[in-house]
């Protein structure tokens, strides 16, 4: 029987469902909000939490990146500034890794570096 180990969990045909809570950018660029989402996912029984790391300049054309973004939910004057605001750097990722270990949930991130066009 095929088996996959992620963190402390072994996944196979007879194991319980492995639950990954997709945090994405729902933390709104705030480290403490992200930690709260990790904690809530853990309390709800998720095995893991996942963020998305993006190379915004590679994902968007220059025109799209520099396009004005006048929206009540905007974190920047342009769409690129908005997207960059939502990105955590290495220091934040290290802090989140420490926090995830502290509360007992597996943490990982997927990378998005190019568009699907």
Walk me through this protein's architecture:
It is elongated, with a radius of gyration of 17 Å. The chain starts with a strand and ends in a 5-residue tail after the last strand. Helix 1 (31-43) runs parallel beside helix 5. The strands form two sheets. It has a three-stranded parallel sheet, covered by helices on one side. With 117 residues, the chain is of the alpha/beta class. The chain has a domain at 8-57 and 88-112: 3-Layer(aba) Sandwich (Rossmann fold). The protein has five helices and five strands; from the N terminus they run E-E-E-H-E-H-H-H-H-E. The chain is 37% helix and 23% strand. The mean pLDDT is 94.
Element layout with pairings:
Blueprint: E1 3-6, E2 9-12, E3 20-24, H1 31-43, E4 48-54, H2 56-59, H3 62-66, H4 79-85, H5 90-103, E5 106-112
Parallel strand pairs: 3-4, 4-5
Antiparallel strand pairs: 1-2
Helix pairs in contact: 1-5
So what's the CATH class of the domain at 8-57 and 88-112? Alpha Beta
Order of helices and strands: EEEHEHHHHE
Radius of gyration: 17 Å
State the end-to-end CA separation. Answer: 38 Å
Estimate the global geometry from the Cα principal axes. elongated
Relevant CATH superfamily of the domain at 8-57 and 88-112: P-loop containing nucleotide triphosphate hydrolases
CATH topology value of the domain at 8-57 and 88-112: Rossmann fold
Low-confidence residue ranges: none
Averaged pLDDT: 94
Share of helical residues: 25-40%
Proper CATH architecture of the domain at 8-57 and 88-112: 3-Layer(aba) Sandwich
How many helices does DSSP assign? 5
Structural class: alpha/beta
Q: What's the number of extended β-strand segments? A: 5
């Amino acid at each position: 029987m095929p088996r996959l180990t992620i963190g402390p969990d072994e996944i196979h045909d007879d194991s319980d469902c492995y639950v990954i809570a997709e945090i994405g950018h729902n933390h709104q660029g705030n480290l403490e909000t992200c930690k709260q989402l990790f904690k809530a996912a853990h309390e709800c029984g998720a095995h893991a939490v996942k963020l998305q790391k993006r190379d915004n300049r590679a994902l968007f054309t220059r025109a799209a990146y520099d396009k004005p973004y006048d929206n009540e939910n905007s974190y920047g004057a342009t769409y690129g500034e908005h997207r960059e605001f939502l990105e955590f750097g290495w220091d934040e990722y290290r802090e989140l890794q420490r926090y995830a270990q502290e509360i007992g949930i597996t943490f990982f991130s997927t990378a998005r570096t190019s568009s699907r066009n």
